[in-house]
Amino acid sequence: MSDTDEGPRERLKAAVWFTVGEICNAEKEKLNVAITPQLIASLAEIVYAQAETLGKDLEMFAKHAKRSTVSVDDVKS
Known about the structure:
It comes from Linnemannia gamsii. With 77 residues, this protein is an all-alpha fold. Helices cover 74% and strands 0% of the residues. α1 (8-31) crosses α2. It is elongated, with a radius of gyration of 17 Å.
């Protein structure tokens, strides 16, 4: 693998960062506030961490129900 190859985790993190940045830029127009790159980075890290935690929780719910896949009911819990 070369240095330019990114794994799925890095691509997902980059997508979260981009999306958070887009949302922040849209909201700063409405709210008339300044948003720094550091704020965007911090928010992106928080969103990514929360998504990871949610994913692990969903896996545990499915495992508790003795299933190997996450179902809609796991998400609704």
